[in-house]
């Protein structure tokens, strides 16, 4: 019946959004993927308190990267920092930030500078999915604006800001998290899919600018 079809659809969507990305993160950032970084090399990971962000943090720490991890929830970040520091002997700095806020990207950039870190790898993972029918989303203007501020505006500002720094030094990597919904329309996820399509094109265009300057762009499509 209709209810069961909807339940199966959302079960599939949850698999795509959570289970598959974790497998991708583990494989892409596996210890064998690349050589260990030079000493005192930092990676910045947004949205590190759960899901893909947490798995990427673990994978990079396993390879020897020091980390700056950031998200809105302090508890999970502190627990993750303690785990990674203890298990891999890396330095982990925790910054609480809300990238859906109007000045969220600026505030995070300022906080990272304050702890005297210049990351050579920047993983812009923070994002949120807002799902529902067209009629439902139409009645949630504030939530739509918050999603676009996080998924689009803050990601754009941070990518350009750190892209400028990495280009100036002639090396580094920016990792953007898009989604399979960027290429395939998904029912009840129009605004979210559009935000991830934006990230896809943002990354490809930035790669054209930054690749000749030694900055690698990596895209993940969970």
Structural description of this entry:
Helix 1 runs parallel beside helix 2. This protein has a six-stranded parallel beta sheet, sandwiched between helices. The protein has 222 residues and is an alpha/beta fold. Strand 2, helix 3 and strand 3 form a beta-alpha-beta unit. It has two domains: 31 residues; 186 residues, 3-Layer(aba) Sandwich (Rossmann fold), CATH 3.40.50.720. The longest helix is centred in the C-terminal third of the chain and has 29 residues. Helices cover 54% and strands 14% of the residues.
What keyword list fits this structure?
Rossmann fold; alpha/beta; 7 helices; 6-stranded parallel sheet; single chain
Mean pLDDT: 87
Look at the structure and give the CATH class of the largest domain. Answer: Alpha Beta
What is the CATH topology classification name of the largest domain?
Rossmann fold
SS-based structural class? alpha/beta
Give the topology.
Elements: H1 2-28, E1 42-46, H2 51-62, E2 66-71, H3 74-88, E3 92-96, H4 104-114, E4 121-124, H5 134-138, H6 141-169, E5 172-177, H7 190-210, E6 215-220
Parallel strand pairs: 1-2, 1-4, 2-3, 4-5, 5-6
Helix pairs in contact: 1-2, 2-3, 4-6, 6-7
Compact summary:
The protein has two domains: 1-31; 35-220, NAD(P)-binding Rossmann-like Domain (Rossmann fold), CATH 3.40.50. Strand 1 (42-46), helix 2 and strand 2 (66-71) form a beta-alpha-beta unit. Helix content is 54%, strand content 14%.
């Amino acid at each position: 019946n209709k209810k069961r079809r909807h339940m199966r659809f959302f079960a599939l969507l949850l698999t795509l959004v959570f289970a598959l990305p974790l497998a991708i993160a583990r494989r892409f950032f596996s210890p064998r993927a690349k050589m260990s970084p030079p000493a005192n090399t930092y990676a910045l990971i947004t949205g590190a308190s759960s899901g893909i962000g947490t798995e990427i943090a673990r994978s990079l720490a396993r390879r020897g990267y020091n980390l700056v991890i950031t998200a809105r929830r302090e508890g999970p970040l502190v627990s993750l920092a303690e785990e990674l520091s203890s298990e891999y002997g890396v330095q982990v700095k925790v910054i609480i930030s809300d990238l859906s806020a109007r000045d969220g990207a600026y505030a995070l950039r300022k906080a990272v500078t304050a702890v005297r870190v210049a990351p050579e790898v920047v993983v812009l993972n923070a994002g949120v999915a807002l799902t529902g029918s067209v009629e439902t989303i139409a009645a949630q203007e504030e939530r739509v604006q918050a999603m676009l501020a996080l998924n689009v505006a803050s990601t754009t500002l941070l990518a350009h800001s750190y892209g400028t720094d990495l280009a100036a030094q002639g090396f580094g990597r920016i990792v953007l998290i898009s989604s399979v919904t960027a290429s395939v329309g998904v029912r009840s996820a129009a605004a979210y899919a559009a935000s991830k399509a934006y990230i896809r094109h943002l990354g490809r265009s930035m790669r054209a600018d930054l690749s000749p300057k030694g900055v690698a762009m990596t895209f993940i499509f969970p």
